[in-house]
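Quarterly update from the structural biology core.
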Amino acid sequence: MTDAPLYVRVVDGEAEVFAGTFDGPFRIGRADHADVRLDSREVRPDHAEVTRVDGVWWLREVGRANQTFVGARTVSEVRVDRPTTVRLGWRGPEVTLSTTPPRPTPADDDAPAEPAEATTSSRELAWARQEAEDARRAAASAEARGRSRVRWGTAVGATAVVLALVVALGLGWADQIRQTRLEETLLDLHAQIRAQDVTVARLRALAASRVDPELDAQIAQATVLRQELSEQYDAGVRQTSLYTGGSGPGSFVGNPATTEEEAIYRVARALGESELDMPRGFVKAVQDEIHGYWMDRGRGRFVRGIERARAQGVDRLAVETFERYGLPRQLFYMALQESDFNPDAVGPRTRWGIAKGMWQFIPPTARRYGLATGPDAASRVPDPLDDRHDVGKATEAAAKYLSYIYTTDAQSSGLLVIASYNWGEGRVIKGVRRLGAPQAIPSDAFEGIPETPRARSYWHFLTVHRDRMPAETKDYVMKIFAAAVIGENPRLFGFDFGDPLAPYSTMAF
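Predicted structure, tokenized:
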């Protein structure tokens, strides 16, 4: 315990933006009333408060927004019992707190110049160099312990080779470590974004059924936070080797991402998945689907589907309905795969009944979400008295159904939502790329999988739980994902029209 004052120093980039001493509680933030006011978009208006409790100083995040970091770890509170540095936002100002006076620093003219680095701050390079040095020492220690099993000359030779590689790679080794740290931080940040997506979608689902100004205010606040997190993630992910040049997470050699690859990454993120976790080979599989199907034998189908959707106003209706429920607009392309946007579509006869309409609802699911089935529900013919053929009613029901999956089992993974809509009991008609009966993922498929965004991801199912998902469902998801990628920028893929959904979209995914 101590009655000593707290010395505070804030550095943003390379510049010191604040230095002062406090004897009592104070606040740090972007707001004008903050005691330590920081003009940075990374800093929230009321970001943190610092108080002394029983002689011990504590920094606590206001509102628990998970935007305060010690290294790569998010923290909600920090005990200051020794010199402590926290970062506000993943790449924001660094605040150093100490109960001992700071040591005098040499004048700028006396300080040795540090070479500029295009994408990495000198602080991050220092961290990376230190970790590289720690790794080298650990390797040297392990080598020393095993020296009794090898000739002395061989051990010295191995050490010389390691040191030569370190010198030859220069900052490459340090940069690889920095990349790994950065990517882990970003994956944690992405999990926070997905958790926020669940919150927003749940609030919007409630708001869809009643008028409540307080609920609207909560939605607005949650949406702003989600947007701030998304902007931070986007700025950070573009500094990774995936975009700047690399063959995957943790890599520091290779070519920068192409425009087509970036489109794939963007849609994956819009559908709740991080491009940093993307399984190897997925990008090529998507490109094969785009070039081998949608730009080839499926080209006419894509064009006719978009034209039909526009003619019926489904593009605008779907975007406005999905965004009202906090869902990604890219789910629009599910109706392309289900029915080619044909409201009179009639599916095959299944054990659950006959699927009908643009969204191919089977009778039990239709009734569960407020759709009346017509007198011809048991016949494979369109029925004008069946709500499933009503585009407006069916799209509203689809949004409710998708919202339920999105906010529960799928934990805001749009790709798992798509898989869930298709996943039945394996009864698939040969040659048909979709299942006739939209069924939620069986609950036992999620058994033993933590209910967290990072565990409930489509990538996770594709790798760890591959055997739980039918191959037909993987193909269904791939078709829709590839169509959504084209839809983001059709001209990039040789179509003569733009994004059909952009004019109606107000949400940033």
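Confidence is low (pLDDT under 50) at residues 105-173, 247-253, 424-451.
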